[in-house]
Design brief:
By secondary structure, the chain is of the alpha+beta class. The chain has helices at residues 46-51, 53-59, 92-96, 103-122, 174-178, 185-200, 209-215, 229-238, 249-259, 289-312, 324-336, 377-380, 390-399; strands at residues 12-20, 24-31, 36-43, 70-74, 81-85, 90-91, 125-126, 135-137, 143-145, 152-153.
């Protein structure tokens, strides 16, 4: 193990210890070539590093916001090491120690981690060690999946000792406990236990390694029923005993995002003005309804009387329809006959039929009788009583 005074690989100056594991120690370091802080994982034995040679080389090609980037590695050195991106913050384990995580925050955390796992799985890798202490939170509480020390290519032969269980006992999938084939579904199972621990604030399978590992074969995890129904169902599927029933990491990410509650927007209802607009009119327009009805009645009566009078005084040959102008004029006169509001007690009388008659020029000319001829019967009979009239005949008999 190099001392702090010696540059590792003539480039990295080692600093404080950030964490320890069964096969490696993680320390802060400074990259003197690029002048940046990094994290370096130092393996205890070269054999441990060689076991993950191919995986580490392939993982160096992964790039995702939810993963810790690999900058450099030398697995053949006297002290094998891997240089990683340094994330300033805390782990999810530290976060849970303060108490249960709110539902919305757990959904956001789970969706980001499921996205990162989907990226890893789509490139043929399995993490095999998902747990709270391997998830880092930066200053903005964005999660980063770290420690790919146990990662391997899906479908490759096991590179562990016979009967050895790889992973942390409290988060192992049932198939890992049985020693069966491990697929990407094992990572989904472990992520389900991590999210459940975030929501409850306690580890689901406690106890010694063997006890904790075997417990999941006898009982499913207890999911609180006061959680949203969709989240309860998703966690139940993620931690299913059968790998075939578990959703993929991508499906988990989509389900967690779809279940996130939308932000509540409080809006004031639109103000609707229902009052009619104010009309500014002359005083006469504000007269009572009764006076208005009286004036309208007078106009109609004048119009009807004028039409009847004109009809009686006209012959069929020469009569014309009464002009509209006189009626309109009378209507205006009648309208003006109504006094303003200031003196509502007095109302001018309505126009009489004679007053409503059209002007003289509207009447047809009177017929003139022709002059009588001289010596006609009409002249000779002037002054004589009409014998045909009953009244005068009766009177003549009285004189006799």
């Amino acid at each position: 193990m190099p001392t702090d005074s010696v540059l590792l690989a003539d480039r990295y100056r080692l600093g404080e210890v950030l964490g320890t594991g069964g096969m490696a120690v993680v320390r802060r370091a400074t990259d003197t070539l690029l002048a940046r802080d990094v994290a370096i994982k130092l393996f205890s034995h070269p054999a441990d590093a060689r076991r993950f040679d191919s995986e580490i080389r392939t993982l160096a090609g992964l790039s995702h916001p939810g993963l810790i980037a690999i900058y450099d590695a030398d697995l053949e050195a006297e002290t094998p090491f891997v240089v990683l991106q340094l994330v300033e913050g805390r782990t999810v384990r530290d976060h849970i120690a303060k108490g249960p995580v709110p539902v919305d925050e757990a959904r956001h955390l789970g969706a980001a981690l499921a996205d990162a796992l989907a990226h890893v799985h789509n490139r043929g890798f399995i993490h095999r060690d998902i747990k709270p202490s391997n998830i880092l939170l930066d200053d903005e509480d964005l999660p980063r999946l770290a420690d790919f020390g146990l990662a391997r290519v899906a479908g490759d032969a096991h590179i562990t000792l016979t009967g050895q269980v790889v992973g942390t006992a409290a988060y192992l999938a049932p198939e890992q406990v049985r020693g069966a084939e491990v697929t990407a579904a094992a990572d989904v199972y472990a992520l389900g236990l991590v999210l459940l621990e975030c929501l409850t604030g306690r580890r689901e399978y406690e106890g010694a390694e063997i006890e904790a590992a075997v417990a999941r074969l006898h009982r499913p995890p207890v999911i609180p029923d006061d959680l949203p129904f969709g989240l309860v169902r998703l966690l139940s599927l993620m931690t299913s005993l059968s790998p075939a029933r578990r959703p993929t990491a991508q499906e988990c990410a989509e389900a967690l995002r779809a279940a996130e509650e939308p932000p509540t927007v409080v809006t004031e209802p639109a103000t609707v003005i229902t009052e009619p607009p104010t009309l500014v009119t002359e005083p006469v327009s504000r007269r009572p309804r009764g006076m208005t009805a009286l004036a309208v009645s007078a106009v109609l009566l004048a119009a009807v009387s004028t039409g009847l009078l004109a009809t009686d005084r006209s012959s069929p040959a020469t009569s014309e329809a009464p002009a509209q102008a006189p009626v309109t004029s009378e209507a205006n006169k009648t309208e003006q006959a109504v006094v303003p509001v200031a003196d509502q007690s007095t109302v001018a009388p309505a126009a009489s039929p004679e007053q409503a008659a059209p002007p003289a020029h509207a009447e047809p000319p009177a017929k003139v009788a022709p002059p009588a001829k001289a010596g006609s019967k009409g002249d000779s009979d002037k002054g004589k009583p009409d014998k045909d009239k009953p009244g005068e005949e009766h009177g003549g008999k009285g004189k006799g």
